[in-house]
Design brief:
Strand content of chain B: under 5%
Number of strands of chain B: 0
Number of helices of chain B: 10
Strand content of chain A: under 5%
Structural class of chain B: mainly alpha
Oligomer: heterodimer
Number of strands of chain A: 0
Helix content of chain A: over 70%
CATH superfamily of the largest domain in chain B: RNA polymerase sigma factor, region 2, helix turn helix motif
Structural class of chain A: mainly alpha
Distance between the termini of chain A: 83 Å
Number of domains of chain A: 2
Distance between the termini of chain B: 55 Å
Radius of gyration of chain A: 28 Å
Radius of gyration of chain B: 19 Å
Chain lengths: ~220, ~190
Amino acid sequence: MNHLNDEQLTDVYYGEPSEHLNACEECRGRLAHLRQLLDAFHEFPIPRRAAGHGAEMWTRVLAKLPPERPKNGWLRWWVLTPALASLLVIAFFIGRVSQTPRAPGISETARERVLLMSLSDHLERSQIVLENVANDEPGSADLADERDRAHELLGANRLLRQTAVRLGDEKDAALLEDLERVLLDVANSPDLARTQRQINQDGLLFKVRVTSVSSRERGEKL
Amino acid sequence: MEWTDAEAAAEARLGNRQAFRVLVERHTAPIFRLAFLMSGNEHDAEDLVQETFLRAYKHFHRFDASKAAVGTWLNRICVNCSLNLIRARKNRREEAPPDEPELNWLEQVAASTPTPERLTQSGQIGAMLGPALNMLTEAERTAFILRHYEGSPMEEIARTLGLKTGAAKQTVFRAVQKLRAALEPAWGGVRR
């Protein structure tokens, strides 16, 4: 008869069924001993709290909460405006790029400058998300913030990538394609380790940082 | 009418402070217990409970009732806050000059070797368990506390620790083995 090993015995203690136990007195004895030891941990003394502990905690928490938000919907729009605005600007100028003949009123230089500044801004914001994810510890609750941001950045990333392809800028297009894959992963994947590996692969963070700076410099010179 | 947890959480998610208040008052006791077990310190536990609720308020829009009960979600936040505290403490200890020799728990246990009955009767048991828990790594301590005290399923422990379910199960087992090794000299040994 194969007796339960320590791991199986631990599983049984935590509720997994075992038919073997019905037939084996030795394992029942070992389980009783393990139970005696582990049950003792329920005697770990937890300090007692007064009946009003919850109400007292609420007072402490309330004192640290931000002032209540007005319930108007405009506030949400106010928060979303920067992301939305950059997406609209990019979409507008991409529209200009694809139109032939081009609409009068916007010079080639102005269009290029806006696109470069948009690209730089987008890469800068992506860089913050990637750095936060790369440095995150397993199990951190804060990663959800980065997921939301990655999700928001994906729209602009797609538009910028398509523009780079259309303009024949292979280097930027390739970088934006790599970035898009990682942003998608951040937005959707629960596997932090895999995402971190992707970020560290091929020096993506470094490339994003360098391209962000160079795009801004090029834009400012125009 | 009294709100259920799910109703209060749904309201709190929309920014209803009264609903959030219900959750704070209802969950302070279990979160305090978890925070105390994680930190081993009453004062820190109080701060951790406060931090847990402040974080919960800030991130309530992310709470998904279809994925977890609000108590489970709060537990996870509390564990993360506790791990941050433990790491900060560890860093402080590494930076500060040593002032007294490290407590050698195994030597202490071996020297006294009281019977379990005596330990229980004399109330010394709590004094033994604290140092034994302190011997565990962060992950082992977290996994053991969630499994043993909170009755969390392995999948939940795995999510909290960012591990696969099998690895989380191994972590609980390692913790139990270490605790057995530390306590068995006083317990008289487990038959194998």
